[in-house]
Design goal:
heterotrimer, A alpha/beta, B mainly alpha, C mainly alpha, A: alpha/beta, Rossmann fold, six-stranded mixed sheet, four-stranded antiparallel sheet, 14 helices, 38% helix, B: mainly alpha, globular
Chain lengths: 503, 193, 178
Amino acid sequence: MKLFSRFKPQGGVHPDGRKDLSADRPIRVLPMPERLFVSLQQHVGAPASPVVVVGEKVLKGQLIAASQGNISAPVHAPTSGHVAAIGDYLAPHPSGLPAPTITIEPDGEDCWAALDVPIDPYALEPEEIAKRVAAAGIVGLGGAAFPSAVKLNISRKTNVQTLIINGGECEPYLTCDDRIMRERAAAIVSGIRLIQRAVGCTEALVGIEDNKPEAIAAMREAAKGTDVKVMPVPAMYPMGWDKQMTRALVGKEVPAGGRSSDIGVLVHNVATAYAVHEAVALGRPLISRLVTVSGEAVKIACNLEVPLGTPAQALFDYCGGYAGVPARLVMGGPMMGHEMPNPYIPVVKGTSGVLALTHKEIGQPVPSPCIRCSTCVRACPVGLLPLEMAAHIRVGDLNTSVDFGLKDCIACGSCSYVCPAHIPLVHYFNFAKGELAAKERAKLKQEGTKKLAEARNERMEKIARAREEASRQRAAKKAAQEAAKKAAADAAAAAAPQQEATA
Amino acid sequence: MTQYLLLLLSTALVNNVVLVKFLGLCPFMGISKKVDTAVSMGLATTFVMTMSSASCWLLENWLLAPLGITYLRILVYILVIASVVQFTEMVVRKTNPALYQVLGIYLPLITTNCAVLGVPLISTQEHQPFIVSLLFGFGSAVGFSLVLALFAGLRERLNLAQVPSAFSGSPIGFITASLLALAFMGFAGLVSH
Amino acid sequence: MFVAVASLTTLGLILGLLLGVAARRLAVEGNPLIEEIQAILPGSQCGQCGFPGCAGAAQALVAGEAPVTLCPPGGRDVVAALALKLGIEVDLSGIKDSGPQIAEVKEELCIGCTRCFKVCPTDAILGASKHIHSVFREACTACGKCVEACPTEAIAMRPVPVTLQSWYWDKPEERLAA
């Protein structure tokens, strides 16, 4: 048996995993909180638009907001109850800006809406599976929150042959994927087979980091008799990055700016596969997810199944509250997650963990100048030069940083993690990407307004011309009339003497 | 042939017009913020210096010396240099308006670049033959361009460095220039007579 | 004495003649730079710079008669682009850039006089007579013409609101260890 895959991952770091805090805690279901704040922007793309009104009674799994446009996802009621409010509420976003949210007051009955359960889910047409996945509001549960059905459709059209199921979970602290693989392996394998059918691919590889032997064993057991292959990969960060996982499993690299489908690969997270099984085989939309609650400032670290829209505070409360005052609350993993300004931020589809960290765990050393030690270059999984990019961004030369490959940066934070000078490298990159996107938007707007201005000028000229033309015509008409009048008068004058003469 | 090559080498590197003779420091500090601009400036100066070296030699030996009016040398040289610069300016403006804009005042100021006047004067002082004078002018200009491009490259990198605020900008530029001059001293003895 | 004067004069004449011929041959018709500059400017012809439209401003910029900071709707980005094109150094930190702005109609003050949308260079204001007007965010260049035209001061410029889609991280502040 091959212990490791043949292919060597590039770059990466080995942060202290801290997974022991919660890895051995079985999944528990969080009791229904008092209120659910279901964000309409839980995915990449356009926010969903509400299809319910305030005061309306909703059932568990009922559609409450429909997807808008090509890249979007619908949102369902996580439990039965009534809609208490529709409006802006705290959103899990680093900006702290609010997002459109539907507030639901649970009635405690947790009563399911009528579910559409197919007789044989594995006999459904591929298009039908993708349609059901889209209708269930499934997005990438690894954290990216990209609508899964869009990926399925692209992959089916581009004839993808290899399905990779990402069980990397490389972020420290997080153990929810580990637990779901240990406890619900059969459902995951079923989800994988459904995705395989939806895409029409023959090969399915499950990549799991070798620091999760129990998960590997459970998945191997569940995959027996299917063509799903479970492959251990070396534990490192960011192994859970889809392109790193692809490189580790099939040895192919996704071209810069490209998608996995360009090299015939589709990558989905294990939790997404589970959600696909729930949605297609059982007809249940995505209304809850597994969340790891961890960190030294939490009394008992847990893995919880949480209804979407639950405020993080409810999770901490269930875990026995804080052990001391947390120095920082984080949603997501410590590497790529973001700080929560307050603990009332609701859980969304992409939330893999909520962490309460102590001072000791975060450490906020003051940055010192770069000495070009190039530790970050070795750590970068994409093979970029973080030090050069950051230096150019610091002096405001964003275009050169793009030449150095800024657009390929995945903001994994490996460079910031290893930097001995504690330079906030990934912060620089996030800033530069945002600034460039804003510039791009401004440029598009300028082009648009320029066209508008030109169109208006043209129109004004046309109107002026038409007016001129009209006045000229009027003048001509008047002149003609006058001429006719004059001619008539002349004729009359000419006729008068004749009459006189004849008289 | 070797002699000419050695001449080129010695004027460009060993007796570098900027870093060893300390001529033409004004554009050296002024047009060295970006490598692209520095290279263009170097090319323009190379053209002017080579042309003026040649024409100054011709005027010196065919006009000034025969007529015994060598006391007008500087005046005549300046006149020629100014004309060549004017001509270069027209060409640059026609071929590359953006570069023309970027070089701005420094383009007409090639006239007052002391290296451009200094090189023909040195050449005359040493009674060099025509070919040698031409190569001397060209070699010096190459040396000037080389140093300008090198220094612009250094400054582009310096721009990224976190320099103490008291030193940022020109001060660190001068320090770097002195280090570059020190480095060029290493070429001394490369060509022995 | 005579030789010196004569030879210098001759030399001057010859060089002058040569330059004159060269100037004829190398004459530049128009200035292609003006067009490039005009492409950078917003093109809404708002006239806030004091020149007749963006073409006039571009000419003045190339002639060096106007500072690169002349365009208020363009903001800091346009200043940077102009400075780069013209090879001028500007200290961007000194320019007060209130960020991108758009016009906003205060509904309680609008009397529906239609004056503002008649002057809007980009057709960014929508409305009919005796109806409250509103501004298309995407088309407004914040040129300010409508503000001047409004008889009831119902229009004001305000910064473009930050949304979840347009928000991005600030530049990390430099606080180095001593």
